[in-house]
Input
Amino acid sequence: MAGVLFELREIGLSRGGRPVLESVSAEFPEGATAVVGPSGSGKSTLLRLLNRLVDPGRGTISYRGRSLLEYDPLALRREVALVPQLPALLDGTVESNLRYAAGLAGRELDAQRCLSLAGLGPAFAERDVGELSVGERQRAMLARALSQEPRVLLLDEPTSALDQAARDEVEATLARLRRELEISLVVVSHDPEQARRLADRALRLEGGQVVASGSLEEALA
Amino acid sequence: MNASIDVSLGQVAAALALVALAAAISFWRRADLERDIAEAAIRSFVQLTAIGYAIELIFEADTIWLVLVLLATMVLFGAITARGRARRVPGAFWPLLVALTAAGATTLGLVVALDIFEPTPRYLVPVGGMVIGNAMTAAAVALNRLGDEVADSRARIEGTLALGATAREAAAPTVRRALRSGTIALIDSTKTTGLIFFPGTMVGMLLAGAEPADAVRLQLILLYALLGSVSIAALVATGLAYRNFFTPAQQLRELDVH
Output
């Protein structure tokens, strides 16, 4: 039986007076969990709660049995790495981005390994991030997160900007990461088919509320 | 440097012809600035006349305390004015107040300590006013830019926080650009001074009958002092204000500041 990574209890969050999440209770076990739902259903906000980029207005979240509030947020974010939907690299080369992230986490950088895990060739190390396509940036973001050697990856629509070939490549990369590094994934996707390909379990949100959760069959029915 | 010149109210009134010209151009080209031009002319007359009397009182009293009260008032109004231009920065008033105080105190302290000027009202009042005014502009420009930069770079800042960077680390590129924009205007105008325009002190001294060499030297002292003070103001204002965008848990705040 896989251990529980995240446990959310009665989470509520409002922005500008409008509820974004309401009474969300859910468990994320080790392995891969997909968060699906239409746009505006609160998926990205839920993801950002998990590494404390935002705190809930109500309710509690725990990670590995301890309240998130007990963790140093900086250390938590290096262990639970978020790859946001919008590529947000720093100016410079791909390698300088990787080096920055690895330095923050106190890791030795093996740039070639991180690039290769993210499906990028060795030549990408010296590329300026301004010259990359959106798909390449998304993979560079993934490589940057991997340079911190996280235990959990939070992925926000990791293939939203990609064509089908690139999407298949990133999905294969994520499957390989799970196998080779035993990293747990929480993947936000608007596409139930992608959830089936990437995850073992799913949580379906609509209008900020959980409408289904559990096995893929249960949650995506 | 004891040149003096008598200017009559009649001469001032004659200069209003140029204000009338400005209003006429606005009216002719439908720029709709006549009211603003009139307000500017009247306000400048009232404000400068009032400050003229205040300075005369302070010179006559010849006490440092009145100078400090005047400069503190300028810092206060400077911070309030600059806050109006930094609307996208939450809680901008205190960073601005501290920045203008630091810029004024450090610059005046140094020019007195280095024996450039005597610590008397005749020097401290005009130099202080100039220093605080320029510091206000620099701090306002820097914070205005900071607010825009943070709004435009939210994804990048949050992406950096997500790596476990501190707020200070995540905001560093943004703060750097804001600091540059606060100081670059004065640096550029200092580079071209004498070539493209004559700065105000030099013009004033030449008109008052001073020797050109004296006018140039005094102008250089003031330009150098201003470079220092605007840098301090922009540094302190941006260095304090960026913190207001973040929570103690190193999160980028959701803001509805307009």
